[in-house]
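Morning. Coffee machine broken again, so started the prediction first thing and wrote up yesterday's gels while waiting. Chain of 393 residues, entered below exactly as on the submission form.
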Amino acid sequence: MLRGIIGVILAAAFSLPSSALAGAVPTSKDLKSVVPGSAKYERKMGDVDYYEMQAADGRSVGLAFVTSQVPPEVGGYAGEVDVLVGMDWEGRITGAAIIGHSENREYVDRIVQAGLLGRFVGRRAGEDFGDIEAVTGATITSQAIIDDVRTAAKAVYDHIMGRSKAGAAVTSFLERSSWPKGLGALAMVVLAVTSVSMPSRRWLRALSLAGAFVIVGLWLNSPITIGNVVDARNAGLPWLYNLPLAILMLFALVAALAKGNLYCSYVCPFGALQEGAARLSPRKIVPDKRLTRGMRWLRWIMAIVAIYAIAALGSDAMRTVEPFSLLFMRYPDSVTIVQAGVVVAASLFVRRVWCRYLCPTGLVLDIFAQLGCKVRHFIRRKAGRCNAGDETS
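Came back before lunch.
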């Protein structure tokens, strides 16, 4: 009964309206900061929305636009970043600022501190920006910002200055998506499915776990986090933003409903890291049953708090509450390293300690797995126990 009540609370938190930062509207201060010499502005709405920036005497000194309001969509790790760009009437960029996003705050702070936005100043619309390098440790998001500013600046200049039709700025799907990495994610899914279908081949499972750590963790840096799961409720899957993550998200949800929580068991890089640590130590501790029950309730509480904070409050901190959310960055912060180190050390004695007792993402996928099992049993009219994922329960 109590578990059912908590499930209702979790569903209510999950359904709260989003307060994501993406889609932000620039303030007067923002607009003036990207077009030097401007004192006032007039918003122009049409096929391409922009702000005509004027001096105090009414003379037009340039324009400003938000990249997310100009096609095509070019997203970062979790979605499109709202970059406010100023430009003079010769097509030179006069300033840029991030005014909204749904990324991890760690990525955005790293980009701002690296001075990426300042590198756009003086560039002309139509340049390829090929010499502007992505920021190490936030490669996906920073490269998306570079591509977004480049394509949006050309689209606005071509459309407003009448050089060509705005549609000429639309890039191909392959150009906007990380398709080589998408193939890597797809290969990981195939490996996981093969491992499940051939359980007697234990080396396949070992290969799958190694692939999860190397491919999903180190190469793709796309482990599914509780923030991704919350974003998915609004169809926030990053189909054109982060193709590998979209593939893994689709696999995790479909597999949970159709077969069980296969993602946590075979694809999660942090789960693989814990399982690898567990195999290094032959001696294991069997936790007290009462302690185990209490810890599993803590997992429910963590999930409710995280989902509420992300969905209703737009909390960046709760998006990174899981140690793996930032662990596989090239330069993770010290708190993340310590947190992950403690979990891995504990896994030497208690198998998959984070997965069993704390992981909110795993809990949500387990719930989907239980729901899928009940639906399958209802359809088949069979009795039987529902296994939501032996590897993590």
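Confidence is low (pLDDT under 50) at residues 18-22, 163-177, 236-240, 389-393. Going to sketch it on the whiteboard this afternoon.
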